[in-house]
Amino acid sequence: MPDITLKVLGMSCMHCKHAVESAVKALPGIEKVEAKVEEGKVEVYFDSSKVSVEQIASAIEDAGYDVEK
């Protein structure tokens, strides 16, 4: 089970999947990330002592996608 699942708006293709996953993977403490384009969500496994949910959401938003809060 992922540590967190975020609803991400604007993902529509494999490029989007790659962009979101790359942005999150660049953060410290990320163990695994999987963007599910069809479901509009991103599942993230991470070390909460190294990265926060807010930082993960910001990385996704910086990549050009909206995170539903």
TrEMBL record:
The keyword Phosphoprotein does not apply. GO terms for molecular function: copper ion binding. Keywords: Chaperone, Copper, Cytoplasm, Metal-binding. Residues 2-68 form the HMA domain. CDD domains: HMA (cd00371). It comes from the Bacteria. InterPro entries: CopZ, Heavy-metal-associated_CS, HMA_Cu_ion-bd, HMA_dom, HMA_dom_sf. The keyword Chaperone applies. One of its GO terms (cellular component) is cytoplasm. PROSITE patterns: HMA_1, HMA_2. It is found in: Cytoplasm. PANTHER family: P-TYPE CATION-TRANSPORTING ATPASE. This is Copper chaperone CopZ. It comes from Caldanaerovirga acetigignens. The lineage of its organism: Bacteria, Bacillati, Bacillota, Clostridia, Thermosediminibacterales.
